[in-house]
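Why should sequence recovery work at all? Because a backbone constrains its sequence more than one might expect. Tight turns favour small or flexible residues, buried strands favour hydrophobic ones, and helices have their own preferences. The token representation captures these environments compactly. In the example below, the structure is given first.
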């Protein structure tokens, strides 16, 4: 089986990730490079591992997490679909079995808001890993006066913790936000659709999704 570690060391894939992020940087988007895709992969793996899924599924979720944003190399618009097509070609050339390719491609093609649906556990874990990666270090712009709402929301997040409870019934995203930088309402302005996706993805894994901001339950 193609492993996550082998994928991380594939120079062709890493070039695509780096240049896809360069395109987003030119458009003024937050960081979508190795820090993001690695965190998404690790979060997706944590969720499936905690919920008792097989090691094989966990590895596929990590691979999907690492590859999920390469479609930004083509265009930000519909990047989940173009990324899925790119991943299909790459993974087949690396001799991944068709069943595994299908799981990864399906997850990538369903990870983005507007079109994404948690159609299988790998897709659900990828959605949760991607949409909960909110943190200050993703903001490239260091001029606070030039921040847009996405910059303000991400920069305001001082701490972010995603955790499944001991009973494996609740997935909780806890954020510590500086309200002087971004009020909670700004968070909802850009993240309501994403949090709805998280709720559906969590439910697909048998979990209830809860969002807590500054110790106050929001969802």
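From this structural description, the recovered sequence reads:
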């Amino acid at each position: 089986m193609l492993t996550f570690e082998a994928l991380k060391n594939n120079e062709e894939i890493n070039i695509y990730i780096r240049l896809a992020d360069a395109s987003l940087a030119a458009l003024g988007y937050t960081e979508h490079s190795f820090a993001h895709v690695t965190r998404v992969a690790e979060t997706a793996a944590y969720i499936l591992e905690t919920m008792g899924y097989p090691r094989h599924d966990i590895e596929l979720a990590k691979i999907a997490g690492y590859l999920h944003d390469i479609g930004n190399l083509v265009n930000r618009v519909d990047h989940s679909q173009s990324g899925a097509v790119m991943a299909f070609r790459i993974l087949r050339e690396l001799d991944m079995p068709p069943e595994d390719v299908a799981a990864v491609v399906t997850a990538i093609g369903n990870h983005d808001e507007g079109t994404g649906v948690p159609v299988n556990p790998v897709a659900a874990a990828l959605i949760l890993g991607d949409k909960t990666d909110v943190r200050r270090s993703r903001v490239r712009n260091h001029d606070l006066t030039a921040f847009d709402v996405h910059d303000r929301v991400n920069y305001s997040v001082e701490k972010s913790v995603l955790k499944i409870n001991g009973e494996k019934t609740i997935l909780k995203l806890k954020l510590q936000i500086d309200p002087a930088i971004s009020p909670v309402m700004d968070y909802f302005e850009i993240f309501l659709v994403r949090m709805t996706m998280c709720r559906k993805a969590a439910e697909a894994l048998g979990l209830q999704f809860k969002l807590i901001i500054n110790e106050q339950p929001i969802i």
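A few observations help interpret the result. Residues 4-217 form a domain with the Hypothetical protein af1432 fold (CATH 1.10.3210.10).
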